[in-house]
Amino acid sequence: VCDLTAEEIRQYRGTLTEPGKDSPYRNRSVEENLDLFARMKAGEFPDGSRTLRAKIDMASANLNLRDPIMYRIVHAHHHRTGDEWCIYPMYDFAHGLSDAIEGVTHSVCTLEFVNHRPLYHWFIDAVGEERLKSHPQQIEFAKLIITYMLFSKRKLKQLVEEKRVSGWDDPRMPTLAGLRRRGYTASALRAFCERVGVSTRDSVVDVSLLEHTLREDLNASSPRVMAVLRPLELEIENWPAGKVEWIEAPYDPEKPDGAKRKVPFSGRVFIERDDFMEDPPKKFFRLAPGTEVRLRWATVIKCTRVVKDASGAITKLICTYDPDAVGGQPKDGRKIKGTIHWVSAGHAKTAEVRLYDRLFKDENPTHAENFLDTLNPNSLERLEGCKVEPSLESAKSLERFQFERLGYFCVDSDSGPGALVFNRTITLKDTWGAMVQKGKAD
After folding, report:
1. Which of 116, 141, 155, 332 is most solvent-facing, going by the fewest CB within 10 Å?
2. Spatial distance between the Cα atoms of 261 and 127, rounded to a whole number of angstroms
3. 343-344 β-sheet, strand order
4. Cα 211 to chain center, whole Å?
C-alpha cells in the first residue's frame, strides 16, 4: 500500500531514459499492507490518499512495469455491491485476470495495448495458472476506422444523452443494435470484415466498401415489392368501373420460377410524385402530359389531363390505358422507354417510412475540433402517409425488402398491426458519392 499522491507517483516513476525510484512505502510488511488494504476497502481513507501497487521493477525499460497501481480508493456507489467496496481496480490489473477467470483463451486488443502486454501476463503469472481457468494470450491488431463514422463510446454516449439520436439502437448508430435495426445483416458484416482483413497498421476504410458489401448481400436475399413514398393519385378513366385484376408478380425478377405474390391493380393507383413532370426536360423517360409509360407488371398508360387545386398544386393525374398491353408489353411492338412502380389506391396499406442517411457529413468526424459540428442535419427524414402493396401488411420486425427503384428497407421495431414502419437500410446506388462529386453533399 502506497501513500504517495498521484503527482508524487509520476515523479517517482522516472522517464523513458531514466529509471524510476522506489516508493518510501515499498517495503511495508505483509501484515501492515493487508491491514491498510482492508481499511481502504472499508472506506476509512479519503479518495486518492492511498493506492495498492504491484511490486515489480522501478528500473524496468517498460514504464508499465514500474510498480503499477492495482487498486485506488473511490467512494462511489456501485450498481452491484452498493457502498460495500470503496476500492476499484485499475484496468491493467482487472483485464488479464478477468479473462483468465472467465476462461478466455485469446484477448484481442487494439495496438495501444502492445506495451501493456507484459503486464497483462505478469499479473496472470503472479496469481498462478493453477488458480485460474486459462492463461490467455493477448494479441493486438489495428482498429477498424471507417469514414463518416466514429466508434468512441464516450462520444456515442454523448449523442445518446443529449438526445441527438433516439438511443443506442438508433439506426444511425454504429452499434450492433443500431445496425440490426437499420437492416444490416450478419452475413454482410462478416463479408465486410473478411474483405478488410486484419492488420497491425492503422488505416482508414472507405464507408462505400461497407455499403457495397451490404447492397450485394441484400440484393441476393431481399424480396422485391412496390411502395410509393410520396404518393400522387392517378386515375385511369377508361378502366372498367369496379374491376380489380390480380397480377402474379415474382419477388425476384431474376428468378421467374421462384416465389411470387398477388398484386392488385385497379383504375386508381398511386405513383411517386417524382415520376411525373408537367414540363419535363429531355431524356425524362417517366410520365408527362401526352406521354406513355409502363406500369410495372401491369399495363401501359398515357397522361391525358392534370388536376390541380386552387393553389396550382397537382392533386391527380387522369390517364388512359392500353388494353392490349398485357403485362406492360404493347401488342404492336412500340417501344416504351419508361417503367415506373405503383400501388393500387384501393388496396394500399399506409406506412411511415424513415429515410436514414449517414450520421456525419464529415469524412473524418473524429478529427474535427468539435465532432458535433459534423453531424448531418439530413440524416433522418420521416415520411408519413406512404403507400405500400398489401402483401406487406403482415411483415414482421426486422424483415427486409427491396422497394423497387427506391432502395432496401427493413421493418422497424416500432411497427405493429395497422401501424407499419419501415427504415431505409440503404439506397440502391451510392447517391451520397454522386452528391459529393457534384458538390451538393453539404
Report:
1. 332
2. 64
3. 339-340, 292-295, 300-308, 314-321, 231-236, 268-272, 343-344
4. 11
Q: What is the DSSP string of 7-44?
A: HHHHHHH--SSS-----TTTT--HHHHHHHHHHHHHT-
Name the amino acid, one letter, at 215: R
CA 126, CA 121: separation in Å to the nearest integer? 8
Q: Nearest Cα to 74, choosing from 38, 94, 48, 93?
A: 48
Question: Cell 454516449, residue?
Answer: 157
pLDDT band, residue 429 (cuts 50/70/90): confident
CB of 322 within 8 A of CB of 366? no
Give CA–CA dist 139/189, Å, rounded: 22
Phi and psi angles of residue 65, each rounded to the nearest 5 degrees, phi first: -95, 5
Burial 111-134 (b: 16+ CB within 10 A, else e): eebeebbebbebbbeeeeeeebee
Residue 55 near residue 9, CB atoms below 8 Å: no
pLDDT category at 421 given cuts 50, 70, 90 is very high
